[in-house]
Structures are given as C-alpha cells and as structure tokens.
C-alpha cells in the first residue's frame, strides 16, 4: 500500500495520521513461514520537520502463528512494536528501502518494524518440556520409554566401567 508524501513534504509542520490494516497473509523469513492470525495493523503519525526532514512515529500490531521452539506446537504470538524514525530527503538519493521517490510503502515499513521485533525464542508455556531427542514424542502430551539419562559424551566410557562392579 503506497502513501504519497508530496503534500506533507511541501508544507513545513504538516502532520498526517494513518491507521490501516496491512493485507499480508503470511510472513516469509527464508526458512520459516509464519501465518498471520490477526491482521497486521499500522498506526502512523507523519510530521514534516522542515528542510526536507520527516518524522515517522507509530505502532505496528498483529498476531502471528509461530511454532514453539521446544515442542513445535503452534503458538499465537501477539506483537506490538512502537517506533520513531527521522528521515532526511536529499536530491537523487535513496532514503530507505520503504520509500520510493515521494511514496511511502506502508507494507514494507510495517514488515521492517515487525521483523525487528520478532522474538528470538517462542515457547508455548514457561514449563514446556519439549520433545524427546530420540523418538520425537511431545513430552507435554505424554512420556516415552527412551533412555534419557543425560551423560556427557566425553564421560560415556565410564558408564560401562561401573557396570562391572
């Protein structure tokens, strides 16, 4: 969704507010594709600071379906990020990747802020037990009969030594 900045940039001190949903159904981040559960919404306040400078201040909200990092169960993760950016337009120079000429791409701006705010790790709960590293069963839903004794591989030789006594 493009928003033309010509009128704002031609009037020093002018302020414009935008509030809209972004029509993204999924977020593709290389190896991971996250489904958008609730629409991504952007509230943006654009202010002309004069001298070809502009301030973008706003909030991006949405809910993504992200797999738990321990058990791989789907988690609806709410995201709300606030941002403030000062942008200076100069002749014949690319300002940012979400501004082309005097057009602001709201989708690219929202995605830029959303990606920055994605968590490093998402858990379905603080007490998530994860999956068995041998058989793959979800330990939150059941147990398995695998030998899960945590032995340092460097000391595994001593395990057989103690069986003799």
Key traits:
mainly beta; 2 domains; 5-stranded antiparallel β-sheet; 165 residues; 3-stranded antiparallel β-sheet
Secondary structure: number of strands: 8
**What is the H/E order?**
EHEEEEEEEHH
> How many discrete domains?
2
Supply the number of helical segments.
3
Residues in helix, %? 10-25%
Average pLDDT value?
Answer: 84
Q: DSSP strand (E) fraction?
A: 35-45%
Distance between the termini: 74 Å
* Backbone shape: elongated
Please, could you describe this protein's structure?
The protein has about 160 residues and is mostly beta strands. Strands 2, 3, 4, 5 and 6 form a 5-stranded antiparallel β-sheet that branches. Strands 1-8-7 form a 3-stranded antiparallel β-sheet. It is built from 3 helices and 8 strands. The chain starts with a strand and ends with a helix. About 15% of the residues lie in helices and about 40% in strands. It has helices spanning about 5-10, 105-115, 155-165; strands spanning about 1-5, 15-20, 25-30, 30-50, 55-65, 75-90, 100, 105. It has 2 domains: about 1-130, no CATH class; about 130-165, no CATH class.
What does the secondary structure layout of this molecule look like, with pairings?
Elements (H helix, E strand, L loop, with lengths): L1 E3 L1 H4 L5 E8 L3 E4 L2 E19 L2 E15 L6 E15 L10 E2 L2 E3 H11 L39 H8 L2
Antiparallel strand pairs: 1-8, 2-4, 3-4, 4-5, 5-6, 7-8
């Amino acid at each position: 969704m493009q928003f033309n900045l010509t009128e704002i940039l031609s009037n020093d001190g002018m302020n414009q507010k935008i509030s809209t949903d972004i029509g993204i159904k999924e977020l593709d981040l290389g190896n991971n594709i996250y489904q958008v559960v609730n629409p991504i919404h952007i509230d943006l306040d654009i202010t002309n600071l004069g001298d070809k400078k502009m301030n973008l201040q706003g909030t991006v909200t949405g809910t993504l379906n992200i797999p738990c990092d321990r058990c791989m169960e789907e988690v609806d993760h709410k995201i709300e990020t606030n941002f403030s950016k000062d942008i200076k337009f100069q002749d014949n120079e690319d300002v940012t990747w979400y501004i082309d000429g005097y057009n602001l791409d709201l989708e690219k701006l929202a995605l830029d802020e959303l990606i920055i705010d994605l968590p490093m790790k998402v858990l379905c709960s603080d007490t998530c037990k994860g999956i068995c590293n041998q058989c793959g069963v979800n330990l939150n839903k059941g147990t398995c009969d695998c030998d899960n004794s945590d032995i340092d591989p460097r000391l595994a030789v001593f395990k057989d030594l103690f069986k003799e006594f």
